Amino acid sequence: MNAVATGAVEAAAPRLKIAEIFTSIQGEAAHVGWPTVFVRLTGCPLRCVWCDTAYAFQGGAWMELDGIFESVAEAGVRHVCVTGGEPLAQRPCLALLSGLCDAGYIVSLETSGALDVSEVDSRVHKVIDIKTPGSGECERNRLDNLDHLGPHDALKFVLADRADFDWARDFISERSLAGRCETLFSPVWGALPAAQLADWILAERVPARLQLQMHKVLWGDEPGR
Q1: Using one digit for the tens of pLDDT, what is the confidence trace for 19-47?
Q2: CATH number for the domain harbouring residue 86
Q3: What whole-number distance in Å separates Cα of residue 135 and Cα of residue 164?
Q4: Is residue 31 included in any domain, yes or no?
Q5: Residues contacting residue 112 through CB under 8 Å, at least 6 positions apart
Q6: What proportion of the chain, given as a percentage, has pLDDT over 70?
Q7: 224 assigned to some structural domain
Q8: How far apart are the first and last CA of the chain?
Q9: Is 9 within a domain?
Q10: Is 2 a domain residue?
Q11: Can you state the percent helix, strand and coil of the chain, rounding each to 5?
Q12: Where are the alpha helices (DSSP H) in the chain?
């Protein structure tokens, strides 16, 4: 009698659709500057107007978790960043994050904040990208995610103009977010001059850290960097 007849069908191994796995310098958030292996998952339910990884919306290849772990290990670095697209759009991402933590890596997650982060392993450094009006996806912000922030997490605000800056400033103030986690203000590459954003932060005394995308300062828009 075969396995199907007896009902002893082995569950398929968890797998994820991966756009790319590559090693570079982390350009953002608390681990900026560290050699990091990036695991970029395919797919995203959002369409931000300034998105710089639209190539990850489609395509990619399916990989089982063990294969991803092997690719990460081959990189030979301590930091791992799981990103997208929107990585949490694929349910097995949660197992990937926990498995990487179990293996001793310093793990960060870059997520839009439009999906629930409550089940993300507490050891993971969450970087939640709060969508400003200029993104075109402001209404997708899931505000209950703010209840799951820890001191090693970060809120990132990508700003296209002064209206975005004012909105982000008020968002932080109205929700008393200063001190709960790190807050990052990042200019849209090629749209808002970094010096202008720095002047606004100083003038308003906003409790946020100016963030430039170090990888773009080094290599521009070169894919996979």
Answers
A1: 999 999 999 898 999 999 999 999 999 99
A2: 3.20.20.70
A3: 9
A4: yes
A5: 44, 46, 86, 128, 129, 131, 137, 140
A6: 93
A7: no
A8: 53
A9: no
A10: no
A11: 30, 25, 45
A12: 3-6, 65-75, 93-102, 162-174, 194-204, 214-219
